């Protein structure tokens, strides 16, 4: 086995060399729909982040601040430096106060270090009203896992992709005796992001909010953001429909208030939205008939199973022939007497009043 290669000391690198190294691990652009995209393949440490703070603010963050949503791609990030965690979290932390996000135990020194967001960032924080999606894969490891987990626990980001590797925050290679063999040992561990005690991602990995193969994660994230971008319009149209059509008028104000104050941060699919709306609206109105449904046109249906059945046609004409009349009645009405002398009448279509008036 080869001996571990020694990275050049950061103090010996020029600013241009640091920027070049950073650009190899960072990629950013603005996608269709004004969605910011930031791919990070390596998390630099505090020393690099401090030296490149102005460069990052001017050339990365400033270009992403004007976007309506952000995708943070950590699918190819297999590690990084623990001291770089605050620099990533702080730009996405919407609060004005510092937040304790993790406590790290270091075995060689037998010490713990608390990780807090920065008191201030250069430039602006990413808006609290803007959605953030973190992409993960089965290769996402170490510091990248901690960042994904922290943002998920903060309810600041929707994690999309695969369960992460469940690795270690920091690894150290130790030479075995005087041989050319080395042992890789985890030397640091998270004691629980955001004060969650024994709950941690190490060993088990970070479970995504929306599971999907890593290669499809970006496409899935953009679909989720498209849905979430439409939510305000959906809520507004529901409010208008309730004002105009709902017959239990006295309950409308409470329903409108409920819709205006709904927490939709966890909605990532149409099914999520429908379930949340129906649960809330029926509880407020005490009316199980108040129902929200997703109606898809046949053009957008994926198959026969997705197509709703055509509603039965209303009977509006009565044939002149007596046998045809009896056949019509039998097709519309089912009449029988059940055990216990219980009458049973079933009809699946409504006839026109003129039809019902015919003897």
From TrEMBL:
Q: Which residues are in the Tail specific protease domain?
A: 14-213
| SMART domains (UniProt xref) | TSPc (SM00245)
Q: Which organism is it from?
A: Cephalorhynchus commersonii (Commerson's dolphin)
SUPFAM superfamilies, per this entry?
ClpP/crotonase (SSF52096)
One Gene Ontology term of the biological-process aspect is: proteolysis
What GO terms fall under cellular component here? Answer: cone matrix sheath
Q: What is this protein called?
A: Interphotoreceptor retinoid-binding protein
Which keywords does the record carry? Receptor
State the taxonomy lineage.
Eukaryota, Metazoa, Chordata, Craniata, Vertebrata
Any GO molecular function: serine-type peptidase activity
Annotated segments matching region Disordered: 296-321
Q: Which Gene3D superfamilies match?
A: 2-enoyl-CoA Hydratase, Chain A, domain 1, 3.30.750.44
Its domain of life? Answer: Eukaryota
- Whichever gene encodes this chain, its name is IRBP
Q: Which InterPro entries match?
A: ClpP/crotonase-like_dom_sf, Tail-specific_protease
Pfam families, from UniProt?
Answer: Peptidase_S41, Peptidase_S41_N
């Amino acid at each position: 086995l080869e001996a571990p290669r020694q990275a050049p000391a950061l103090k010996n690198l020029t600013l241009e060399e640091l920027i070049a190294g950073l650009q190899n691990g960072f990629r950013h652009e603005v996608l269709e729909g004004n969605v910011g995209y930031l791919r990070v393949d390596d998390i630099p440490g505090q020393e690099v982040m401090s030296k490149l703070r102005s460069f990052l603010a001017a050339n990365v963050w400033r270009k992403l601040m004007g976007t309506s949503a952000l995708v943070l791609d950590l699918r190819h990030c297999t590690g990084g430096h623990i001291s770089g965690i605050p620099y990533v979290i702080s730009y996405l932390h919407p609060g004005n106060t510092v937040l304790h996000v993790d406590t790290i135990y270091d075995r060689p020194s037998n010490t713990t270090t608390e990780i807090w967001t920065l008191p201030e960032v250069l430039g602006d924080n990413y808006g609290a009203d803007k959605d953030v999606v973190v992409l993960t894969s089965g290769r996402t490891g170490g510091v990248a896992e901690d960042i994904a987990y922290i943002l998920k626990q903060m309810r600041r980001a929707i994690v999309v992709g695969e369960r992460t590797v469940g690795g270690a925050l920091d690894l150290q290679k130790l030479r075995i005796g005087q041989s050319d063999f080395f042992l890789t040992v985890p030397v640091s561990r998270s004691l629980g992001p955001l004060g969650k005690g024994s709950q941690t991602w190490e060993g088990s990995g970070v479970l995504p909010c929306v599971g999907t193969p890593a290669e499809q994660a970006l496409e899935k994230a953009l679909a989720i953001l498209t849905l979430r971008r439409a939510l305000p319009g959906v809520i507004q149209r529901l409010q208008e429909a309730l004002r105009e059509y709902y017959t239990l008028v006295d309950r409308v104000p409470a329903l409108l208030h409920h819709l205006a104050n709904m927490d939709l941060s966890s909605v990532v699919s149409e099914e999520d939205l429908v379930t949340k709306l129906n649960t809330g609206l029926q509880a407020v109105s005490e009316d199980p008939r108040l129902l929200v449904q997703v109606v898809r046109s046949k053009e957008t249906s994926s198959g026969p199973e997705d197509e709703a059945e055509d509603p039965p046609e209303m009977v509006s004409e009565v044939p002149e022939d007596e046998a045809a009349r009896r056949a019509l009645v039998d097709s519309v009405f089912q009449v029988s007497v059940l055990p216990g002398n219980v009458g049973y009448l079933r009809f699946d279509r409504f006839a026109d009043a003129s039809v019902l008036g015919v003897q």
